[in-house]
């Protein structure tokens, strides 16, 4: 699932996108083993460069991971997500530049892990998406909290509430990519530039961070959010539990610190995942 290879003073990591699953104990063990290795070697590393191997059909795997979830497993679901979020926080705060190198389709949990990398560089063919809403599910493991803090509420809405696919240029404009490379040679140069800076921090970790697109209490966002529930129902022709849960997680998560935002996101995910009635009529992509 996870392989590593030296790249000069940096370490390259390749992950099979389909195996990235917050609710998989096997994947969590592999990721924990990788993090143990990185933490032991961080004084010798100039950077960690993470890539994703996306196989055919990876965009529909979210539902496969959830077919066995029942209401009785809600507590275990929350426990698993707490453990997975802790792993992503270790990656996010490794202390050396962690760079996600994105190419082709990067979807769902793979994008969620990429967003935990403080630096994200895409090849020109990169296409980013969080399609869970189309499966009747809320994204999880920081996919909501990080997207909103990187892009702002309005720019995050199409990705989170509609499951749209962003091309590399759109993703950069939304704040999800730092740079776009025309090819492998330029990608290598851009990652080398990041290694030279030795900076490794997410924007919201800065002291004077401001939410892109304006704060929640700004007049334009207040108007947008007041109208959003009715618009969701109008587009769906009735209730849309997953989109409504995501909207709540977006707004509530911005009113607390990042750790509590992750907990709120997990609760809304479990709410949609353990109740098959909320997914009635929704088919995998």
Automatic annotation (TrEMBL):
<dbReference type="InterPro" id="IPR001753">
    <property type="entry name" value="Enoyl-CoA_hydra/iso"/>
</dbReference>
<dbReference type="InterPro" id="IPR050136">
    <property type="entry name" value="FA_oxidation_alpha_subunit"/>
</dbReference>
<dbReference type="Pfam" id="PF00378">
    <property type="entry name" value="ECH_1"/>
</dbReference>
<dbReference type="InterPro" id="IPR029045">
    <property type="entry name" value="ClpP/crotonase-like_dom_sf"/>
</dbReference>
<protein>
    <recommendedName>
        <fullName>Enoyl-CoA hydratase/isomerase family protein</fullName>
    </recommendedName>
</protein>
């Amino acid at each position: 699932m996870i392989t590593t290879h030296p790249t000069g003073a940096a370490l390259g990591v390749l992950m099979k996108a389909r195996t990235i699953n917050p609710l998989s104990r096997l994947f969590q063990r592999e990721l924990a083993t990788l993090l143990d290795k990185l933490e032991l070697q961080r004084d010798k590393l100039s950077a960690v460069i993470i890539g994703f191997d996306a196989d055919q059909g990876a965009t529909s795997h979210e539902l496969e991971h959830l077919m066995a979830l029942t209401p009785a497993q809600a507590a275990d679901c929350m426990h698993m997500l707490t453990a997975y979020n802790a792993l992503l926080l270790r990656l996010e705060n490794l202390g050396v530049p962690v760079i996600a190198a994105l190419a082709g389709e990067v979807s769902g949990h793979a994008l969620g892990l990429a967003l935990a990398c403080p630096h994200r560089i895409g090849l020109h063919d990169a296409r980013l998406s969080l399609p869970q809403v189309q499966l009747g599910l809320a994204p999880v493991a920081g996919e909501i909290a990080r997207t909103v803090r990187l892009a702002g509420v309005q720019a995050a809405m199409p990705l989170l509430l509609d499951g749209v696919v962003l091309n590399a240029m759109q993703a950069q404009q939304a704040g999800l990519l730092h740079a776009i490379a025309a090819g492998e040679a330029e990608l290598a140069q851009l990652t080398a530039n990041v290694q030279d800076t030795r900076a490794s921090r997410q924007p919201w970790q800065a002291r004077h961070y401001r939410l892109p697109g304006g704060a929640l209490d700004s007049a334009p966002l207040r108007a947008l959010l007041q109208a959003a529930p009715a618009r969701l129902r109008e587009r769906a022709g009735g209730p849309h539990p997953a989109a409504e849960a995501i909207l709540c997680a977006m707004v509530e998560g911005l009113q607390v610190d990042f750790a509590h935002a992750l907990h709120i996101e997990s609760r809304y995910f479990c709410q949609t995942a353990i109740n098959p009635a909320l997914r009635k009529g929704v088919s995998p992509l």
